[in-house]
Design brief:
two-stranded antiparallel ribbon; alpha+beta
Length: 133
């Protein structure tokens, strides 16, 4: 039971952090959209990701666990098609100058934004699982 609660809290934290880092996710007026988003990532982490990791073990080893990121991308695309009010807009990074390191401005279209969001959620979930498990 503790494992399920921990993984649910990790899913909530990773989705919340990603939505705050990349403010391009629109959930609509329905509060169930947020529950479906977090619940979907939680179910992917608990059920689907272990199955796909075993089935695609050689590919998963070669790509350092990229299978979970691909599953998250597919889940976001499915949510955009099936949930009314859920949308992801294109993202424009304004650029930054951090102690002399210049990061140029970049524009991501909708597909690249979805991939960026899915990869961010996947990395945050993996880091939080390493820290708390």
């Amino acid at each position: 039971m503790r494992h399920y609660i921990k993984s649910l809290l990790i899913a909530i934290a990773s989705v919340y952090t990603t939505i705050n880092l990349l403010p391009v996710v629109g959930l609509g007026n329905d509060p169930k959209n947020l529950l479906l988003l977090v619940g979907g990532f939680w179910l992917i982490t608990l059920l689907i990701n272990p199955i796909f990791s075993i089935v695609f073990l050689p590919i998963n080893i070669l790509t350092f666990g990229l299978v979970s990121a691909v599953l998250n991308v597919a889940f976001l695309f499915a949510l955009m098609n099936f949930l009314p009010g859920f949308h992801i807009r294109p993202y424009t990074f304004p650029g930054a100058n951090i102690n002399g390191v210049i990061l140029p401005a970049i524009h991501l279209n909708q597909v690249l934004t979805i991939v960026t969001i899915a990869i961010t959620i996947t990395i945050l979930q993996k880091i939080l699982h390493i820290i708390f498990e």
